Amino acid sequence: MLRYMTAGESHGESLVAFLSGVPAGLEIDQQFLDRELWRRQQGFGRGGRMKIETDKAHIVSGVRHGKTIGSPIAILLENKDWKNWQESLPVETGDPEKHKKVASPRPGHADLAGALKYNFPEARYILERASARESASRVAIGAIAKLFLRELGIEVLSHVIAVGKAALGNAEVSWEKLLELHAKQEVLLNCADAQAEQRMKAEVDQALRTGDSIGGVFEVVAHNVPPGLGTFAQWDERLDGLLAQAVMSLQAVKGVEIGSGVESALSFGSAVHDEIGYNKGGEPRFTGFTRASNHAGGIEGGISNGQDILVRGHLKPISTLRRPLGSVDFTTREPVKAAYERSDVCVVPAAGVAAEAMVALTLARCALEKFGGDSIAETRRNFAGYQQQLREF
To answer: Domain with 260 in it: what CATH number?
Structure first.
């Protein structure tokens, strides 16, 4: 059973990620982990925090001589901004006069709901944990999940479908194109179409000029996923449900779509169900069964069907605005403008990278539940047996 959790605050000393259940013998590529963290920090519209942090994964347990050893993995991510917050957010009692309050809650953020829940007089401690800075720790352990999935031939990438009103005309992007995007050393908005990306950039520019923020839609693609992950047997074991919960758990994601789910709801069944064929020639990776389309997003009945898995996340605009909305002072209850904390304008590409991590962790969990293995050699052997079963079906 693959289990994971994170700890740490936005302006604390470090973030911590824990990952348990990874088979022994998996090779860990440090450069790959650090590049995944770098990818999360990229994108047009990111704020000043990204100029401070240079995220590196510091593995402190579970990996020795470059390979997993079967014990829980712990990763530290240093917050370089901590030096600016040590006096205002000390672990010990410290000087209360140096505390930096969030005196008025921001509409759309966890500030007010969190302060009410935990009985805090203001929202500083709510901001510290609710912040999307936490997603960096998920990307770190998600990178290990990706390395595990690679052992089974599965890859996970993302691209941006829309930013504001600017959208990709043809959202059916080839896997080869996604690989090209992933290889880029400069990331604008991670869109597969250059013209659409310029329209997206114009949307971000408009938000920048007006002191606003802007959201959008990203799509995560899981490539070469075999049929048979997940099940319809119980409600909480369905793959689409697991993926939806995983992606929805990311900060600012307000909707999750599998395949062409939204469009399908407005269409006739004859237009959206993927017709089945069979290719009697060649040597298929999994089976000879084919599909004329992929509206289902690679999942039917809660089970992967052998096609690419497509998961879209609909991201609301960041709730911290340079031109703040109306709010109420926590102390006086008088109308004021919402608090402003250094923030981004657009994080859709970064959210896509974080969603890749969540999709990879979910697929890795389902793969381990199906194929098992205390060592990566055992997992590969079990997977090879399942592939043979599929070919002989």
So the answer is: 3.60.150.10
